Amino acid sequence: MTLAISLGASAAYAETNTVEDFVRAMVELKRAGATCETFVQGSPLTVMSGIDAYFLALKQPVPNSIDQRAKDSIGKLIKQHAAYICSTKLVKAQNNYIRAAATYMESKPAEWPDAPWIDFPQWCQDPACAEY
Questions:
Q1: pTM confidence score
Q2: pLDDT tens digits for range 99-109
């Protein structure tokens, strides 16, 4: 009996962690997009509009934070370096989001919305963002 209760608690804990990890990955992705909006081609915030819809479906405030310190620092660089740093930052956040979304979809609570599908563009045309 104790084992069954422990296993049930572990499953609930794992489900909670999965949801928390997913939400955290979405918020970080959105923050990277907002911080880097002006430094890469395309519009990260437009691409990530599904995140807004996800939070609205749960009647939660939409995360809209910018890492102002990072944005100010990146803004002092030449355009090519700013784009490269932002592209790298966005790709890292995208990869974290994709992993968290896959895990979330495998074990999400039935009443929760599906993970937003985000069609990520290539932020720079070449790896060094030389077009800037």
A1: 0.84
A2: 999 999 999 88
